[in-house]
């Protein structure tokens, strides 16, 4: 059972005009869970279920938990999702609506994760991490397989980086299909740039905290594999401000009629802010989506995020 969709591959006239260069969009915001997460989570959960693990336990700020809850409902497994206090109530309700038990533990994801790991120690349980597992990366790499099937090879790929799961999947896919010459622009917001810190240092760095509104990028340290891929694949780490990420979400909503989170806005802002030099004939932006967004929440971010002076 494949739990994710082959997401649309669209050429964006609006973004192409802004960039002065052809921009294509991989629309994972249109996955059944609203984000790319179901690609890797679906594969991980299916394999766990086949091994006889019928209780999935996940720690999440929102999107991964929603994907695990969806997978559990489809597979017929019990699901417990542990979220921090920062996860909004509407997102908790969305996860619970899939049939999962939602527990609120800790003020940040790291604290929720400690509880989830303890719960998953029981027999018959599968601990489903949000970004650091080979099954997740393999599942996310199907995005590249779909590009191959569409006979579309981009000149470069723009992708948002939080814990590094999507980034690892994209690079794994590029390496597997022989597209080792396709560079990746790894986008973060300035208050959540753990990947850039690690890449610059040449070793894993834990940043002091997450100050960005892009909570889906809120991993204080990326997975080790993300750093390893950055050493063997052409990768440029770039950052945008929260204001630029939110503006990108607002503009994208107006122009493409799709709501996305600021984490995804970080990737889109690369185009709106002309943060990179175009390479090759076209650029692909992974519209990773995000279920933890509503129109009212986007309007609130617009009012509260500081504007550049």
List keywords for this structure.
309 residues; alpha/beta; Rossmann fold; 2 domains; 6-stranded mixed β-sheet; 4-stranded parallel β-sheet; 10 strands; 43% helix
Task: Describe the structure in your own words.
With 309 residues, the chain is an alpha/beta fold. It folds into two domains: 9-36 and 135-304, Rossmann fold (3-Layer(aba) Sandwich), CATH 3.40.50.1100; 38-130, Rossmann fold (3-Layer(aba) Sandwich), CATH 3.40.50. It contains 13 helices and ten strands. It has helices at residues 13-19, 37-50, 63-75, 89-97, 109-119, 134-140, 142-149, 165-176, 194-201, 224-232, 242-256, 262-272, 295-304; strands at residues 9-11, 23-27, 55-59, 78-83, 101-104, 125-128, 156-160, 184-189, 235-240, 283-287. The strands form two sheets. The chain has a six-stranded mixed sheet with strand order 1-2-10-7-8-9, with helices on both faces. A four-stranded parallel sheet has the order 5-4-3-6, sandwiched between helices. Helix 8 (165-176) links the parallel strand 7 (156-160) and strand 8. Helix 2 crosses helix 3 (63-75), helix 2 (37-50) packs across helix 6 (134-140) and helix 11 (242-256) packs across helix 12 (262-272). The longest helix has 15 residues, at 242-256. It is globular, with a radius of gyration of 18 Å.
